[in-house]
Specification:
single chain, mainly alpha, 0% strand
Length: 223
């Protein structure tokens, strides 16, 4: 094994180019991307890719530390982890760290392909493919607890990093009636007699003509 996996070696340069020392996105790239005139949408896609790697559980913490430190070798990662987590360096096994970094590199290549970085920055008609893969992987890692509170079929295969305030407000107003908390409130406030009559219409066998008419209204509404 060489000391630096090829794709990770290249990726370290790009991460340095678009991320500042505090882990924030640099609107003006430096390093290998300085003066490159790469379109902003391509740079944002690169940032989404980097965020998937560094901000989720897609790869191990060892790889995150390795990638985030431009001059660090895989062996250096052991010391960096000890400093970050304030633990004794002997708590970390060098071989385990190196194996995890190689494992993560393989995973990135298998999921995105060996040319993912050039696909993001320079490829023709490849950006959408990479964006779709990122969205799919984020969906797998996304905590389900919040979405479980919404009684709607919310898509998992789309991710958008920006939305204006008006559209966000419209979205929230649209989904609020379908949240479980709102539905619990509505359920608790329903008229017991009306609920009883609703149940009677559904399960009753001796319905009057008016009852049947109202049952048809329910079926049309819920069908």
């Amino acid at each position: 094994m060489s000391d630096k996996p090829k794709i990770f070696k290249q990726l370290k340069l790009y991460i340095y180019a678009i991320m500042d020392k505090n882990g924030n996105y640099r609107t003006v790239p430096r390093g290998v991307l300085k003066g490159s005139n790469i379109p902003s949408d391509r740079l944002k896609l690169l940032w989404q890719f980097v965020s998937l790697l560094l901000d989720t559980e897609f790869i191990h913490k060892e790889s995150k530390v390795y990638l985030s430190n431009l001059g660090a070798t895989m062996k250096d990662t052991r010391m960096l982890l000890a400093d970050i987590e304030d633990k004794d360096i002997d708590s970390y096994n060098e071989k385990t760290i190196i194996n995890r970094i190689y494992t993560d590199q393989k995973k990135v290549e298998q999921v995105f392909g060996n040319s993912v970085l050039s696909d993001i920055l320079y490829g023709i008609n490849t950006g959408d493919r990479v964006a779709a893969i990122i969205a799919g992987e984020l969906a797998k890692l996304m905590p389900s607890s919040l979405k479980d509170e919404i009684c709607l079929d919310i898509k998992n295969d789309c991710i958008c990093t920006e939305l204006d305030s008006e559209r966000f407000q419209q979205f929230m107003e649209t989904i609020v009636p379908y949240t479980k908390s709102r539905m619990r409130f509505v359920s608790a406030s329903l008229d017991d007699e009306a609920v009883g009559y609703f149940n009677y219409l559904i399960y009753g066998k001796r319905l009057t003509d008016l009852d049947k008419e109202r049952l048809d209204t329910i079926k049309n509404l819920l069908g």
